[in-house]
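User: Predict the structure for this protein chain, please.
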Amino acid sequence: MLTDMETSDIRRRLRQALEQARTATTERRTRADLAATAYSAFLRDVATPVFRMVANVAKAEGQGFTVFTPADGVRLVSERHGEDYVEVWLDTSLDPPKIATRANRSRGRNVTTSEGLLRPEAPISSVTDEDVLDFLLSQIGMLVER
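Assistant: Here is the predicted structure, written as structure tokens:
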């Protein structure tokens, strides 16, 4: 019953809850900052080079792809159908942030998009070029089939 509670007890508990929330927010921001730093290195040193190599090899095989590098990700886009692409980016809505994947395929008016995580159990710094290549190879078929 609320009338049995003391104002001082409510105040103490409220202050404790607010302090816990502040601490949790600070810790989440720290994790997000660390993930952003690791992701930047991953994007520069791992993902973008693999995407470019796959595009170059595919072009030699008669399949045209273009690599785009927006500020927060890398995307491999079909030159034949610009709505067909695969990409990776940092999903900051997760705690801790993770490397997310997206595959988009357009057939007429139908658009199919699938999203996932690239090695969700692993820290960003341990995601390798093999992981990126495996993802791209698992999706490349849907980009070239018509």
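Residues 2-144 form one domain.
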